[in-house]
Each structure stands twice: as C-alpha cells, then as structure tokens.
Design goal:
CATH class: Mainly Beta
Radius of gyration: 26 Å
Strand order of the largest sheet: 1-2-3-4-5-6-7-8-9-12-13-14-15-16-17-18
Distance between the termini: 72 Å
Helix content: under 10%
Structural class: mainly beta
Number of domains: 1
CATH architecture: Beta Barrel
Number of helices: 1
C-alpha cells in the first residue's frame, strides 16, 4: 500500500512538472489601445524692440492644439488635430508670423502606414523630412504625401525619404514643393550619436499672398508682386549628441544653398549648441544659436517665426527652459537680429509657458 501510494504521488508530481513546462499557445491577447488623446498648449509674451527706428511692440499669444489618434491596425495610424489661437493683437502680420492671431482650424488630418521598413503618409501632417526651423517652421503643417524607407543595422540606420507638398501657408497659397532626402543615424544611445542628412528642396512658388514674400527679393510682373529668384535648395545637416557627465549635449550645424539665387544671396547657416533636456520636473535646458541667412537662400514664407526676420539677416538667440511639472516647462529667450543691409539691431524677448504633447 505504501509503495503504491508513493508511485501515485511521484506520477502526479511528474505530470505537474510536465504541464508547467509546456508552452502556452492559447494565452489571452494583450489589450491594445486603439484611440489616444493628446494636447499641447502655448502661452507666450512677446516683446520686440525695433531700435532705433520704431517703438517697442508688446503682445500675447495663446494656442491650444488637441489631437485624437486612432490605431485600428498595429501599423496604421489615423490622426486629426485642431488648433485654437487667440492673440492680444486682433490681426497677425503675415510679414513676420506663420499663425492666425485669432481663429480655429483643422491643422492635421492624416494617415500613417508602416508596412515593414516603409513609412507612408498622406493628408495634412507634420513635416516628415528632417530639417531645422531655419528651413521649415514645424508649426506649419504640410499638405500632400510622403514616403520613407529605413534600413537598420548593428551600427545605425539609413533612411531614404521623398515628399510632395501643396500650398502649406495660410491664405491662397498654391505653391508646390518637392523634397528628396538621404539621412543616416549612427552611434549608441546615451553615448556618441551622429545624425547626418542631405536634402534637395525644389519650390514652385505660385499664387501666394505677396506679404509672405517677406524679406526675399520681390519683383513685379504681369500677375503682380512675385519672387525675383527661383528656389532650388540643397540642405546639409549634421547633429552630434554626447553626454558631458550627466548632461546631454547636442551640437547642430545646418548649411543651405539656393543654386538658383545670385551670388551674395544664396547661402544660409545655422549653428546651435544645446545642453540639458526638458520633460521631467527639475530638468533644465539651455541653448545658443547663430544664424546667417542671405536674402534668397531659402523661402521666407515657410521658416521659423521665432526669429523676427525670415531671411536677409544675421542673429543670435539664447534660450533657457525649466520643467516644473511633467511635460510642462517655462522658457525665456532673447533674440538679437541685424538685417544685412543695416547696422541696426532688432531685439526680441519671448517668455513661453508650454505644455508638451
């Protein structure tokens, strides 16, 4: 009896061990979130001193951008975003600003499909081409389509990208923009990382509000005021990331040439050094930028409006940001600019309260 009982217990234990070692082929699938909601917010105080020609200009800007994304498939995203703007100035001056002073609109409506190594976009979406804001203001959403292919390896990744955009600026912009880019990423996260890209931007500037010609060279023809130069722009961008102790550092060098512009009007350069990061409470970030942009080096209708002029200037910008709540930071920035045809400087002071996506 004792022997029979012992054999029964051993058999039961062996059966339990075998069952524990079997793979679980019928586990319940993990829950996947299909819908997501994100939003960001900007509250800005903006002061411009047009010394010595004009009086100081003070204004405020408030912007809310809520976005809803749907991921019906693991490799497919559908997104929609609205933007709500209110400025203390009733009307925004298109000569300098890329946003509407007061208004609401749908600024994103897109799909993003990722079949394998490809990424395909269509609709109205964020700029998919790697670029600094010297070349493209990332607040301007692009209308059209884009495709990219990425090959990854042990030492980095290589991306080939192309895009076509239609009239992204406010008003009746019917311009066409075609872009092709080769980009590489190398290095180790947390160590030395290098991102480099080379791009060609071809602009077919058609009907656009003449105010958006901004500081580019204008010319009058039978249709009115238009651009004196065409724009066939090459962009070379290198970003190097590395730590100094516990502080992440980024050095960015961006060079632009418009091969269709005349000598003395075709080149632009941006150099930026950034220390620190933002996003987590207690984190700081400081940056310094120098820009030199000749008059027709790039299309002033689409680049950053954080600098007062868009082309035809040299300038310096210093900014310091402090994160005091998760994804919420306060930033102060000072920009000094001199148009290349005058010794006078324009001083701009920005104080931003930002809630990040």
């Amino acid at each position: 009896m004792t022997k029979r009982l012992l054999l029964t217990v051993l058999a039961a234990l062996a059966g339990s061990a075998a069952t524990a070692q079997e793979p679980q082929y019928f586990e319940e699938p993990a829950h996947r979130q299909i819908f997501s909601f994100r939003w960001d917010f900007l509250a800005r105080y903006d002061r411009v001193d047009h010394l010595p020609y004009y009086a100081s200009d003070d204004r405020g800007r408030f912007e809310l951008r809520p976005e809803i994304d749907a991921d019906p498939l693991p490799n497919l995203r559908l997104g929609v975003r609205g933007v709500f703007d209110y400025g203390t100035q009733k009307y925004t001056d298109p000569i300098y600003d890329n946003y509407e002073a007061r208004g609401a609109e749908l600024d994103r409506l897109y799909f993003l499909w990722r079949p394998g190594a490809f990424a395909i976009r269509g609709g109205k979406f964020a700029m998919p081409i790697t670029a600094t804001e010297m070349l493209w203001d990332h607040d301007i959403q692009t209308v059209g389509g884009a495709a990219a292919w990425t090959a990854t390896g042990a030492r980095g990744a290589l991306t080939l990208a192309g895009a076509f955009f239609y009239g992204p600026q406010h008003g009746h912009d019917t311009s066409r923009i075609a872009v092709g880019q080769v980009a590489g990423q190398f290095g180790e996260e947390g160590g030395l990382e290098v991102d480099a890209s080379a791009a060609y931007w071809g602009y077919d500037m058609r009907e656009i509000d003449p105010l958006y010609i901004r500081q580019n060279t204008p010319i009058a023809d039978s249709s009115g005021i238009t651009y004196a130069s065409e724009f066939h722009v090459a962009d070379l961008l290198v970003r190097v990331r590395f730590p100094i102790g516990a502080v992440p550092m980024t050095v960015s060098l961006d060079g632009v040439r418009n091969f269709a512009a005349s000598k003395g009007r075709r080149n632009a350069f941006d150099g930026t050094v950034t220390a620190g990061r933002i996003g987590t409470p207690g984190e700081f970030r400081a940056s310094y930028s120098y820009q030199y942009i000749q008059r027709d080096a790039l299309v002033g209708a689409y680049n950053s409006d954080d600098w007062w002029f868009h082309t035809w200037y040299e300038g310096h910008r210093v900014a310091v940001a402090w994160t005091f709540l998760p994804s919420v930071y306060l930033q102060g920035a000072v920009t000094l600019q001199r148009r290349l045809d005058t010794p006078a400087w324009v001083n701009r002071y920005l104080v931003d309260l930002v809630k990040m996506f």
